[in-house]
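Hi U.,

Before I forget, here's the chain from the pilot set. I'm dumping it here mostly so it's searchable later in email.
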Amino acid sequence: MKTNMDKIIKKTETDFGMPTLIENSCIEEAAVLCHSLGLRFIELNMNLPDYQTERIDLSRLKEIADKYGIYYTIHLDENLKICDFNRKVVKAYTETVLETIEIAKQLSAPILNMHFHEGVYFTLPDKKAYLLKQFENQYEEMLKIFRNTCDAAIGGSKIRICIENTRSFMLDFVEKGIGILLKSPVFGLTFDTGHNAGSGFKQFPLIERNIDRLYHMHLHDHSKDKGDHLPLGEGKLDIAEYLALAQNHNCRVLLETKTVEGVKKSAEWLKK
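Structure:
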């Protein structure tokens, strides 16, 4: 395993990065850590107050990126609902995405990472009835409008909106919806290794069927007893296999642990 890993690390030109961490008091503190670990990018998390579109300080972010030789990707709000029967909700989230696309252009951020929200369901005696599946025509029309709006906004830039695997990836109507988005070249996929493992490895088949659209990876270890978002080497996953996958598809790799210590351990594991 160690020999195989050495070969992968020596051959790969993959960019590795780190997430926004609660422990970092400001973006410069995060950038210092990122640079010191030899990582290339920070994924700004829009669930946090400092990274709401109206609060982002573009000039400061550019200054920090230049100073420490890093760049940014952006994780969109996990509550993002691009399909909702309340048009005001859809309008607000779509406007947020459009504003984020403009921010990404200013920062030369290549990736916007998003979750695909499965929507509300009614619990029936024998099943869960998902409303987006029940009202399929309206669901698909909302997706097409969102796709075309993002396509026009991104234009000729190289920004990609990558959909991250979550529990929704195991739903047939979600796969169909993602297929609608992938008809535009501005959309792609993010592979989260821990989410997949936590589902019993049931989320990867959707990605595998669209493997040519895999652009981004959230890499962390996992085990049944310790759970998710573990530092590399502290769980049961075949990390070498995932690194090879990232290399073969030219994916950026986010070392997605939730603590400073966890990111340090993962970066050190890679260097070994």
